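Known limitations

Structure tokens in this collection are predictions and should be treated as such. Users comparing against experimental data should check residue numbering before alignment. To illustrate the layout, the record for Methylamine utilization protein MauE is reproduced below. The input appears on top and the generated tokens appear beneath it.
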Amino acid sequence: MISEMGSEICRLLILLTLLLSSYHKLCDWRGFAASLVEDFRVPKQSGIVSAIVIIAIEALTALMILSGEPWQIVGLYLAAALFLLLSLVLARVLYHKQRVFCQCFGRSRYPISSLDLLRNGIYFFVAVFAAIVDAAIALTWLEQAMLFLIALPIFLLTIHLNELQWLLQEQTHE
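Generated tokens:
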């Protein structure tokens, strides 16, 4: 039962990540498209189409995870593949020492760092764990809400790793 609950928390974490990521990109889809062209060298004529495709893939993957069996498992493995692909892109940016700002959850004030790569690595393993354990348990709405309340702060911590690092550095310099 504990592994199933853990799997459900992981599923909720991935779901939150995909839903909010696609939402923030959709809210500023022109800025996201411009970022793809400027920062990631996507050809200018493909920037808007690429942005729309990425947003659609994230949103559809979230819907797959929400839909239940058998699409939930497919969605979790697709999410893992997306996080792996994004990790490779981030690793390339870090390797070439490019100064690129993350657009995952809206425009960031901080350039991409190894913490973003760590976050995506965590999301990759979380998605794989949730798919493997396959929490096909029936939960009441109260149990589901409690698990969501566990997943939410984990999500918030992982998307704000750069800000937390900055805050901790500021505290040590005082």
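For this record: The chain is about 80% helix and 0% strand. The mean pLDDT is 82. Please report discrepancies through the issue tracker.
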